Amino acid sequence: MRGKLYKDPREVTVRWNARCAETGKVLAKGQPALYYPSDKRMYHLDSQTAQQWREWRDDQAMGFDY
């Protein structure tokens, strides 16, 4: 498994109210969300992008390096 990079997506706690870049759902302060630093977008954890990221992360943890 490769190490984490600065621009890798990560799960964060929202520090101010925002909207999901994919679904438009409100991300309330204190709520967990997925953050993509490369394009500075946040995604609700129910979004398709977040689901794909979780699947990729789980694959990485199992040793599948794409």
Strand and helix layout:
Elements: E1 10-13, E2 18-19, E3 26-27, E4 32-36, E5 41-43, H1 48-61
Antiparallel strand pairs: 1-4, 2-3, 4-5
Can you walk me through this structure?
The chain is α+β, with helices and mostly antiparallel strands. The chain has one domain. Helix content is about 20%, strand content about 25%. It has one helix spanning about 50-60, and strands at about 10-15, 20, 25, 30-35, 40-45. The longest helix has 14 residues, at about 50-60. It is elongated.
Task: Provide a quick synopsis of the model.
The protein has 66 residues and is α+β, with helices and mostly antiparallel strands. It is built from 1 helix and 5 strands, in the order βββββα.
Task: Give structural attributes.
single chain; 66 residues; 21% helix; elongated
Q: What's the mean pLDDT score?
A: 90
Approximate shape: elongated
Oligomeric description of these chains: single chain
Find the count of extended strands (DSSP E, 2+ residues): 5
Major β-sheet profile: 3 strands, antiparallel
Describe the strand arrangement of the main beta sheet, using strand numbers. Answer: 1-4-5
Count of all domains? 1
- Fraction of residues in helices? 10-25%
